[in-house]
Amino acid sequence: MNLSLKSTTAMALALGLASGPAFAGMDEARAFLDEEIGELSSLTREEQEAEMQFFVDAAAPFQGMEIKVVSETITTHEYESQVLAPAFSAITGIQVTHDLIGEGDVVEKLQTQMQSGENIYDAYINDSDLIGTHWRYQQVRNLTDWMANEGADVTLPTLDIEDFIGTEFTTAPDGKLYQLPDQQFANLYWFRYDWFNDEKNKADFQEAYGYELGVPVNWSAYEDIAEFFTGRDLSHMGVEGEVFGNMDYGKKDPSLGWRYTDAWMSMAGMGSEGEPNGLPVDEWGIRVNENSQPVGSCVARGGATNSPAAVYAVTKAIEWLNKYSPPAAAGMTFSEAGPIPAQGNVAQQMFWYTAFTAATVEPDLPVMNEDGTPKWRMAPSPHGVYWTEGTKIGYQDVGSWTLMKSTPEDRAKAAWLYAQFVTSKTVDVKKAHVGLTFIRESTIQHESFTERAPRLGGLVEFYRSPARTQWSPTGTNVPDYPKLAQLWWQNIGDAMSGAKTPQEALDALCEDQEDVLARLERAGIQGDIGPKLNEEQDPEYWLSQEGSPKAKLENEDEEPITISYDELIKSWQ
């Protein structure tokens, strides 16, 4: 099965959906089900038609309304914008414009709507990283109350919230659901399975390092593997050109911040133990008290953003970027670096988003076998020397539907219908095949993904395993994501460029974060769940306490550990 956005867009054009609806109703719905969905649904045809009938009926009061929604630009959202939005318009008579813009621009638009009260978009797909922001500012409709009250008449009876795998991340400490997941992807370890299983490579690595070449469990092993492959002659495998043991990016750009908050620092072991995020100290180094109030970011207030573990995390990233990565990587952004491993000269990448899977399984790539199976695999990322069992080990992006209170109720209802259409059980299996961003348990378990799993490099196995719950988005310790996120790339960019040492950059970062927390505290706009900063103390006081922030280790080089990928997969099953 090789489904692409191009082919599905062509189907939509053939159906006449992309040119806007001539009229609304079940005839269009049946044509959509025949031509676009087929058997790629977790529902029977009868159940699909029942869902479509609901959308036709519920949309009747809003026929002719024009609404605007927005998301970042990834394959899943391109499919929604180019195929599903026209189909929804044809079926319901609600004209949907689904804009695609950069992730940073989505946050900026959302922030502008929060500050101005002007209805810029009728719904947003924005990351659940903003859950702490939404919960504290109370400017978005909490969906628990919305579905039970004003939105009850436009809530799909078969929406089945329990089937969504990411609602833990979009539920606030008050127990309310604030966002509805639309797409999810994790950052995992990516490696050349064929290179790691080559007998000459295995023998040479064993001789050089004294242990078996395999999936690295910790950063010490990752570093050895990076060193081993960088500059290695792989002509015996038909590999031409220079080979590198690591891939990353380092340009001073908003995406540089994601690389650390999502969640390099927790992988190093900076935060506290706890799921889905460390408590009391999260992967941003922000500490909260028992009332979930942020109390500090610097070690002097009990935070960990400038702690020894954080310095270790940034130092290692810079060292590996400079020593073991393609020279151009230091000047790349997230989106520029993403496709590089698929070009065939990178051995491994610790920090690889599964959103790139669709683009990394194209048939003619040098990382694909002739039979359609990949030469690469994905696995859990290794952890740093400060990491302990129970600490967050990686990031999962959960792009989620968000309804602002500043959106008029009728427009919010129309947008909510569209949000449910693109996440419905009718549509979700097909959407997941196009974008490979799973949101529903019923989709993950669909037989079509059992069939396709061998061609997706471990993605299906990961999402069917209990391990997936250990990968989580930014949690509720972060009280204002838009204000705080920009501080990360600006300050860490200084360390990446060499303008500051990692310690200097992180000292500046935690102070900048505390300036924002202090302003929010003074303003009092987040009430009794807003920041309440601790008094500063000698950092040694906090470093001597159990848990995060953690004191500097005398030796930051631990015994390297690797595991066989095939054994790892067995443990997941």
From TrEMBL:
Q: Where would one find the signal peptide in this protein?
A: 1-24
Positions of the region Disordered? 528-560
Can the keyword Transmembrane be found in this entry's annotation? no
Per UniProt, what is one Pfam family of this protein? SBP_bac_1
Molecular-function GO term, any one:
transmembrane transporter activity
Q: Where can this protein be found?
A: Periplasm
Alphabetic keyword roster = Cell membrane, Lipoprotein, Membrane, Palmitate, Signal
Say which domain of life the source belongs to: Bacteria
According to its record, what are the GO cellular component terms? Answer: periplasmic space
InterPro entries (UniProt xref):
ABC_tp_sb (IPR014597), Bact_solute-bd_prot1 (IPR050490), SBP (IPR006059)
Family the UniProt entry places it in: Belongs to the bacterial solute-binding protein 1 family.
Task: Kindly give the PANTHER family that the UniProt entry links to this protein.
Answer: ARABINOSE-BINDING PROTEIN-RELATED (PTHR43649), POLYGALACTURONAN_RHAMNOGALACTURONAN-BINDING PROTEIN YTCQ (PTHR43649:SF33)
Q: What is this protein called?
A: Carbohydrate ABC transporter substrate-binding protein, CUT1 family
Q: Which organism is it from?
A: Roseivivax lentus
